[in-house]
Specification:
The protein contains one helix and three strands; from the N terminus they run αβββ. With 70 residues, the chain is an alpha+beta fold.
């Protein structure tokens, strides 16, 4: 049976943390850009099952726009 040590795993968790932090920072920057361009202060991407599936706003005054909707 193959094994991974806690020390080995820590290295990968640290790299994963860096990747996910960069990912979330880029999404946050894009949401800020959308807010400036649309004038909707609380516009954001909405998530379901750990995936982005559309755009809405936190105050729920904007009808949800699904990513894969025609």
């Amino acid at each position: 049976m193959n094994k991974i040590s806690k020390k080995q795993a820590k290295k990968y968790f640290e790299e994963l943390y860096e990747i996910t932090t960069e990912f979330h920072c880029k999404i946050y920057a894009l949401e800020n850009k959308m807010a400036k361009e649309t004038g909707i202060k609380d516009i954001e991407f909405f998530w379901a099952d750990n995936a982005i599936c559309g755009i809405g706003n936190a105050s729920r005054t904007l009808p949800l726009i699904h990513m894969y909707e025609d």
